[in-house]
Automatic annotation (TrEMBL):
Protein name: CoA transferase
Signal peptide region: none
GO function terms (MF aspect): transferase activity
Organism per entry: Megasphaera hominis
A Pfam family matched in the record: CoA_transf_3
InterPro entries associated with the record: CoA-transferase_III_domain, CoA-Trfase_fam_III, CoA-Trfase_III_dom3_sf, CoA-Trfase_III_dom_1_sf
Length: 400
């Protein structure tokens, strides 16, 4: 069965993480994604660790199932080719600084002029409007400005960013969702539109109840380490040999937990129910921490799993990649790359009953598909393509 986006043509001007993650999700679902890259250097992540044989694993993961066309967008010929490709596209997506595509003559209005039902999407740090729209951003900037960094870490220590570029990924996921909504609307109305997604906005949108704590009660939340603002215990503890994460969200779970520990904690009025345990967690934590320290992580996980208490070891990446749950779910896919060889990477994080989302195509070498796209999509002949190469408007890199 065809995947839902197998007839979708996406012209992808994105780079680094937020945009490429978005278009990777759509490519995994079958879309044809043509990635436009700078001649000579390409996407910045082609130069990001880890490397093997001179190729980047970072780029290989985020750009699987895509094609690469090198194009000098600052040249008149490059701009003309980009506009011709927009005529063939369902979606155009970019994540340059606000206004960059307009200055190149390739913004939404230019795209709409050549294809009136185009869906044009922009991801940026702060959006296309507002006083910060031209401010430069990377993930840590969005985490800082979106409130996340201030909430992460321990109260007696400096703010800490989330270990991965979560603001980038979150913006990409939101954009993928918005593109699906826009495509659905176009199917029903025939109209395209412009979508503006900001990393600051999308970071703020996933701050759980922290914004509401302030707007509802005037409380300015601060860092609380691994604790939860509404439940206790909801924390990480040191064990006899490592660490363990434990979370109880209601009285039933905590009752099962104390029984598994062979203790009667709830008889103490300070800990009788969840709100009180949260309020008095400074007194509760040492009791739990002392018990955890006397047991190994494996023993605690086995004991609490039997009691249906949410618990987990704190997995390292090596343990995660080889975990039987991850393997059983098909979350590690093997892909053959012409330079990197066989490599394992995370698969698509959802399972469908009537379609597959395999890694069909390795991430392209820089400009690998230039000739095929110019000839196959735009109908340019060999002489014309050769002339473009001579002027360094485009480049073609062959597979190794």
């Amino acid at each position: 069965m065809k995947n839902p986006f197998s007839d979708l043509f996406i012209l992808d001007f994105t780079h680094v993480y937020s945009g490429p993650y978005c278009t990777m999700l759509l490519a995994d679902l079958g879309a044809r994604v043509v990635k436009i890259e700078r001649p000579g250097s390409g996407d910045d992540t082609r130069h990001y660790l880890p490397f093997k044989n001179g190729e980047s694993g970072y780029f290989a993961y985020l750009n699987r199932n895509k094609e690469s066309l090198t194009l000098d967008l600052k040249s008149p010929e490059g701009k003309r080719i980009a506009l011709e490709l927009m005529k063939k596209s369902d979606v155009v997506i970019e994540n340059f600084s606000a206004g960059t595509m307009d200055r190149l003559g390739l913004g939404y209005e230019a795209a709409k002029a050549v294809k009136d039902d185009i869906i044009y999407a922009s991801i940026s740090g702060f959006g296309q409007s507002g006083p910060l729209c031209h401010k430069a951003a990377y993930d840590i900037i969005a985490q800082a400005m979106g409130g996340l960094l201030r909430l992460t870490g321990f109260p007696d220590q400096p703010p800490v960013k989330v270990g991965v570029s979560i603001a980038d990924a979150n913006a990409g996921i939101h954009m993928a969702f918005c593109l699906m909504a826009a495509l659905y609307q176009r199917d029903h109305t025939g109209a395209g539109q412009y979508i503006d997604v900001s990393m600051m906005d999308t970071t703020m949108s996933v701050l759980e109840n922290f914004v509401m704590q302030y707007t509802l009660n005037g409380v300015v939340p601060e860092r609380s380490g691994n604790e939860h603002s509404a439940s206790a215990p909801f924390d990480m503890y040191e064990t006899k040999d490592d660490y363990v994460a434990v979370a109880t969200g209601n009285n039933t779970q905590f009752s099962r937990m104390q029984a598994a520990m062979g203790m009667d904690i709830m008889s103490d009025p300070r800990f009788a129910e969840n709100t009180l345990r949260r309020k008095n967690y400074k007194e509760l934590r040492p009791i739990l921490a002392a018990w955890m320290k006397e047991h190994t992580t494996a023993d605690i996980v086995a004991l609490f799993d039997r009691a249906a208490v949410p618990v987990a070891p704190v997995l390292g990446i090596d343990e995660l990649v080889n975990h039987p749950q991850i393997r059983a779910r098909g979350m590690i896919e093997t892909q053959h790359h012409p330079v990197l060889g066989d490599l394992e990477m995370p698969g698509f994080p959802a399972k469908f009953s009537t379609m597959q989302t395999p890694v069909r195509k390795a991430a392209p070498l820089l400009g690998e598909d230039t000739d095929a796209i110019l000839s196959g999509v735009l109908g340019l002949d060999e002489k014309t393509i050769a002339a473009l190469k001579e002027k360094h408007i485009v480049e073609q890199h062959e597979k190794g």
